[in-house]
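Our preliminary data section would be incomplete without showing what the modeling component actually yields. Below, a chain of 100 amino acids is followed by its predicted structure, encoded as tokens that our downstream tools consume directly.
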Amino acid sequence: MASVAQKKAVSEFRDRLNRSGLVRTELIVTLADKAVLRDVARILVGGGVAADRLRLALEPVIAKPKRVKGGMYAMLRDSPLVGSGLVIEREREVGREIEF
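Predicted structure:
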């Protein structure tokens, strides 16, 4: 169990981080990626030209595609199966009789 002094020290450390615009975060990564991610974090925290270049290099890799309304329908309309004559229908059944 942490002592009162330890809890206070951790709290003050986090307050200093927040005042400087930083946050502490925890990641679960493979051992092979640990050093790479630490280096990436160090460069980003350092700021400057290197951080800007790294952000620009990572942006296309990690960017999430924008969600477009009707995207599923557009994908289906652009499908190579359009016009192939493929008919997909579900059989309509009344059901089955169940004895109680």
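The CA atoms of residues 2 and 78 lie 60 Å apart. The chain has a mean pLDDT of 87. Preliminary results of this kind motivate Aim 1 of the renewal.
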